[in-house]
Specification:
Largest sheet: 4 strands, antiparallel
Helix content: 40-55%
Radius of gyration: 18 Å
Oligomer: single chain
Strand content: 5-15%
Number of helices: 7
Order of helices and strands: EHEEEHHHHHH
Shape: globular
Structural class: alpha+beta
């Protein structure tokens, strides 16, 4: 009896509105990805450093399906850096998912995230939940993002208010209008759902 090949979670990211950045994009992206790779590898969010695969696109292997991969499937051969030299079902599915984000006819709304795993029911549920999540994300203002990012560092409203130089009610209002609790609940629920759906994902 043949052993089942493990599934892997491939993440391919395309920088939104990258044409506006033009020539400045690649050096800035490479620099940012080096520091993000160190942080995310240390936090065990990813398994391999991020690699730029096109001018405004980069990819990696997520450490688990709950890290919001966009393609879940097998990988041909041994898993090793650099990630852009790997191939297999997971990469094909991730590429198809990314193309569906760019294809305005694939969704009835503007999507930022798409997942594919060729698993009955999973793709539909995951993409519906992340479609709702993306709708919320696109309606968050710059001020609300600033408050959310500051809050995520401290996890305390009073320290966030002090860091931003605003009062407590402003922080609370920005977190509420920035849908922080809904976003956190989505991530927690989808992480559990993905881990249950793909317990053999390495």
């Amino acid at each position: 009896m043949r052993a089942r090949r493990p599934k892997h979670a491939v993440l391919i990211i395309d920088v939104v509105r990258s044409t506006a950045l033009a020539d400045r994009l690649r050096p800035a992206l490479l620099s940012r990805l080096r520091s993000l790779s160190r942080l995310h590898l240390a936090a065990r969010r990813i398994r391999l450093p991020y690699v730029v695969t096109a001018g405004d696109e980069f990819q990696t292997l997520a450490s688990a399906p709950g890290q919001v991969p966009i393609g879940i499937g097998g990988i041909a051969g041994r898993v090793m850096a650099p990630v852009n030299l790997l191939s297999g079902e997971a990469f094909i599915l991730a590429r198809g998912a990314l193309e569906s984000v760019h294809d305005s006819t694939s969704h009835r709304f503007e999507a930022l995230t798409a997942l594919r795993a060729n698993t009955p029911g999973f793709d539909t549920i995951a993409n519906t939940v992340y479609g709702l999540h993306d709708t919320l994300v696109q309606n968050i203002s710059e001020k609300q993002w600033q408050t959310i990012n500051a809050y995520l560092k401290t996890k305390r409203v009073d320290l966030t208010a002090r860091a931003l130089g605003v009062n407590l009610s402003t922080v609370s209002r920005n977190l509420k209008r920035g849908y922080l609790r809904q976003l956190e609940e989505t991530v927690a629920t989808m992480t559990e759902f993905m881990n249950r759906s793909f317990p053999d994902c390495t």
